[in-house]
Amino acid sequence: SDIPVLTLDGPGGAGKGTISRLLADELGWHLLDSGALYRLTALAAERQGVDFDDEPALVQVARQLDIAFLPDEQGARVLLGEDDVSREIRQEHIGGRASEVASMPAVRDALLARQQDFAQLPGLVADGRDMGTVVFPQASLKIFLTASAEERARRRQAQLQSTGSHASLPDLLKEIQARDERDMQRSVAPLVAARDAITLDTTELSIPDVVARIGALLAERG
Ligand code: C5P
Q: What chemistry does it catalyse, as a reaction equation (predicted)?
């Protein structure tokens, strides 16, 4: 289609969230945080007391999600119904639950059109695992962001600290590795770079460096 889409895929903690937000701000484009949709599905299911083995019930939860993303200086405020759940959905256990529901093909399917609706002029920055492979295969530019697991654990710890939560590095590393494993091994939409994606390893790069590199790549593509 004619709507420019920039996809950023990669494992958790590679900096996708921050970098996507900065790029969207800089370009004046819309932003899709697709991980938040899986996190919201998991949180809504928990609140409704849905069994995480009950795939049809989880599909219903995904279909009926009543959510909103409100722009804010801190990023985006995320609403579930009337409730501001911006902080709650970032909890590690919700991340784990999100990864469980994300392994179900029917749940992914239920969220597909909702994600594609974010592609609006003047453009979209889409952050996730399968943005370039499944949701926006025609994207103008596809980036696959990586960083070492140790570096990602350190970043996650700093991020948690900034929101007043705490977790030990070894625990975070274990969770990150378990989540990577599950996201890469699942049969549907596994975490993998699209064939036409450009991989950027951010272990040794600052956030402004990464933003500048991606901005330059986008400018090259015209
Ligand atoms: O990126 P974030 O950590 O918020 O994503 C939470 C979980 O949602 C991931 O571990 C992954 O399992 C799932 N996810 C996904 N596809 C996406 C985005 C997130 O499967 N596009």
A: dCMP + ATP = dCDP + ADP; CMP + ATP = CDP + ADP
Contacts of 168 (CB under 8 A, 6+ apart): none
133 Cα–ligand 1 center, Å: 14
Distance 108 CA to ligand 1 centre (A): 11
Nearest to 163 by CA among 92, 82, 103, 61: 92
Q: Angle at which helices 105-116 and 92-102 pack, to 10 degrees? A: 100
pLDDT tens for residues 50-100? 999 999 999 999 999 999 998 776 667 999 999 999 999 988 899 989 989
In sequence order, the 6+-apart residues with CB closer than 8 A to the CB of 24 are 30, 31, 125
Q: List helix spans (H) across the chain.
A: 16-27, 34-47, 55-64, 92-102, 105-116, 149-162, 169-185, 207-221
133 in contact with ligand 1, CB cutoff 6 A: no
Does 222 appear as a known binding residue?
no
For residue 10, say whether it is annotated as part of any ligand binding site: yes
